[in-house]
Amino acid sequence: MYDRFGEAGLSESGGMGGGMDPQDLFSQLFGGGGGGFFGGGGGGRPRGPRKGKDLPHRVKVTLEELYTGKVTKLALQKHVLCSKCDGRGGKEGSVKSCQGCNGQGIKVILRQLGPMVQQMQQTCTDCQGTGEQIPAKDRCKQCNGKKIIQERQVLEARIEIGMTDGQQIVFKEAADQAPNTIPGDVIIIVDEQPHPRFKRRKNDLITDIHIDLLTALGGGKVNIEHVGKHFLSIDIPQGEVVKNGAIKVLRGQGMPSYRHHEMGDLFINIHVDFPDEIPIDKIPLLEQALPPRKKPSAITNEEEVEDVHMEDISEREAHQGRSQANGAGAGQMEEDDEDEAGGGPGVQCAQA
Ligand SMILES: [Zn+2]
Ligand SMILES: [Zn+2]
């Protein structure tokens, strides 16, 4: 069987200071696509150069890398025209048109089918469809007459600051070479990886922070490690109350935009973590600090009062409650929860 053309592959080695040898992992994955010499199977060999196949390759990139930019080295196993014979396959003048097919690469066979004569096309077996023959003694030693050789090339893909998922870096005509063919492009596609703490929305970032109840009520500091590797120290001033479920923004702390490097914003979803219990003797201090309790709604019929006690719900009930909250029962659930001080669905969310 003939060597296949259009066979190339990429592999990558991460980072700038990698030093690791890029491995040629992908060379088997791409390929096929028919011989570079063959026509479409219709009218023999095509006139003029055809365009080779593009070679797409996704590169995994983290938000940190998109914030600072980086260079990824990619090892490309590809076909190049043989330099020894300049892609002729043999000594100059030794390449002759195949006599078996008259240089067409295909033979036309006539077949009698009743009253009809059917024309069939077959790849010429004398020249394996190349349309050419090179005497064995004149054949190029380096490529064995195949005109192309495998070569390993390292491409440096520049992941630029602020690039987005799906964005392409194109290496023009860097894919497989073949005689009479304009090579396709190597297309590197940015594959932005999900971040454990930050979501990206265009150039804005979104994150969640958890603060304790005392900080939420009495002020304090919260630190966030940014994707830009710096730390943000957020000051929650005293005298201001940060509520559970509040969304705040840090202007200019998002991602830099592509090319112009204009900074997006960082949105913060705040979750207030409540303590599980509180010492009873400290409750008077709370009563001093917080607004007074809401008065229970008036009881109009003194004979019909029942004293009841709330229990924690089971794991299964909690699950049912959550799925109900997404459906029709949502309004009901919220109303029932309203009297618990600052509790409700937000607390569940913070625990998740
Ligand atoms: Zn050669
Ligand atoms: Zn032939």
TrEMBL record:
Domain CR-type: 69-152
One biological process term in Gene Ontology: protein folding
Organism superkingdom: Eukaryota
One Pfam family recorded for the sequence: DnaJ_C
Signal peptide range in chain numbering: none
Residue spans, zinc finger CR-type: 69-152
Comp. bias intervals (Basic and acidic residues): 307-320
Molecular function GO labels: Hsp70 protein binding; unfolded protein binding; zinc ion binding
Keyword terms: Metal-binding, Repeat, Zinc, Zinc-finger
Region entry Disordered, spans: 293-352
Protein name: CR-type domain-containing protein
